[in-house]
Amino acid sequence: MKPDRVRWKPAPRRLSDAARGGRARGAAAPLGAALALAVCLTHSGCGLGDEPPPVLVIGLDGATFEVLDPLFEQGLLPNLAALRERGTEGVLETVSPAISPPAWTSATTGVNPGKHNVYDFFHVSKTSPQPFLTSALDRRARPVWWFLNRAGYRTGILNIPMTFPPDGVDGFFISGFPFGQATTGFTYPKELEEELGEYPLDLFGESLPAGRERELLDHFRHTFERHQTVAKRLLTEKDWDLFWVVFTGTDKVQHYYWKFSDPKHPGYDPVLADEFGTAIRDFFVRVDEVVGEFVAAAGPECNVIVLSDHGFGPIYEELRLFQWLRDEGFIVPDPANPQVPLTLDAYAPGAFGGLLRVSLLGRDFQGRVPPEEAAEVRERLKERLAALVDPETGEPFAERIFVRDELYHGPYVENAPDVVFLERSTRFVGRAAPSGDLFGPPSYTFSGYHRPEGILLGAGPSIGRSAERGTFSILDIAPTIYWLFDVALPNDLDGDVAEGFVRGDLLDARPVQTSSESAVILPENVDELSAEEREVLESHGYVR
């Protein structure tokens, strides 16, 4: 251990071993033991002693091997490449829909959206035609830091999407977006906010108007630089066992700047490409530098995990989902006002993507479909989507189509979209107002959008070494972190400890243990919002 560079140290034990339900943790290792550990780590067969190493998790929102592989080949990502060379890499398959809210929440809880209740940035209401912005208070499963704190480990959580308002933790916490209209109250403890200095909150709902390309890119870069500066200071100055930070600029720069590096894109402009054609590449090169700084600061005794919540790719053409619903008769407009539905059998919740929900009587606002007819409407949606043909290619537009019970299970399935479909590569599902045109260029200013395959890289004393690129599930992240800390897994997780990612010899020597505790908070145990909590969320634009 290098005390001048590594400030990590074991957290004080605040609970008895019996109360934690786990084995006793060792005291802080003296320098001699730390040096022995460093020597030990150079030999792959050596054990790790009694004290689990710390874990550093770096989230790169939307990172994809489609972008990274060419940069690896050009030698532009030496620090991520070093993790690959001394550790393990894999494709990380995400949940459906492949968007940040359910994906990051599944990563932090280890359960599917039917159990954690987060499906999108918005959720529908029985009492209003307008959806509500989803917040951390809608999460119905306990995240990994909750159980680690119970076991006596300190956690530093920074900028993970869908974590506002912040959780009270043994450690420190900076919420991730969205923040509604909030400009304060995003840290735990509250005093940490004053320590941060300038800390730009991630915006939600950006767009790229013509002529604003430089301004938006500078904003993404500035936000990233401030976030990484703050994170590195907390990494080196605070005490922690798990440090989990997410950078969202990697997602945003791909959303808006993909077209400048892709001559096949219908929005490609050779003049703008001269200025912005390397925006994505340059962003990841800078991210790689920061990853190297974080890994060096954490030290060689730290287990490092780098992951993304989903992948990315270009979008060339859009399906106008509202128009499709009208064409197929699921929406019948009012002749006096064509923008207002006269009858509504199904609708598209959320802002983007292939999500459809039956307008169910007694469940949805002004729902009209009786419960006994809901299954028929779902099947009709699925059949008509399967028959939808892309006019450019003649192929089916939808690559995969699911009804909700094929994707989700748990006490909160009723809040899920009833039908979820994944469009084929380079296609997009938008929410443009009905205009008669079923297909067209993306109506929003995105030129890239999410794909289901993210990334996973790892290295450290407990991580295996492999030259092969495996395949893992985002649901495996939380169980793997529990195992790395020798904490028994909650008994209702949907993921598993990632075999092939962690060291097989250690997994054999220390098999996975399951506790009697549950991660999922059942509906009857969910506390109602207090008057104070409701007032706060109303002021932030979360509830009406």
List keywords for this structure.
Alkaline Phosphatase, subunit A, 2 domains, alpha/beta, Gyrase A, domain 2, 544 residues, 9-stranded mixed β-sheet, 4-stranded mixed β-sheet, globular
Q: Could you walk me through the main structural features you see in this protein, from its secondary elements to its overall organization?
A:
With 544 residues, the protein is of the alpha/beta class. The protein has 2 domains: 48-310 and 452-539, Alkaline Phosphatase, subunit A; 316-440, Gyrase A, domain 2, CATH 3.30.1360. The chain is 31% helix and 18% strand. It has helices spanning 17-20, 31-40, 65-73, 78-86, 100-109, 113-116, 144-150, 192-195, 213-237, 249-257, 270-276, 279-298, 321-327, 371-387, 404-407, 477-484, 504-509, 531-539, and strands at 55-60, 88-93, 122-123, 132-133, 155-158, 171-174, 187-188, 242-247, 303-307, 311-320, 331-334, 337-344, 346-347, 354-358, 398-403, 419-423, 426-430, 439-440, 448-451, 453-459, 469-473. The strands form 5 sheets. Strands 7-6-5-8-1-9-20-2-21 form a 9-stranded mixed β-sheet, sandwiched between helices. Strands 10, 17, 18 and 19 form a 4-stranded mixed β-sheet that branches. A hairpin with an 8-residue loop joins β3 and β4 (132-133). α9 runs antiparallel to α10, α9 (213-237) packs parallel to α12 and α10 packs antiparallel against α12 (279-298). The radius of gyration is 24 Å and the shape is globular. Residues 1-47 have low confidence and may be disordered.
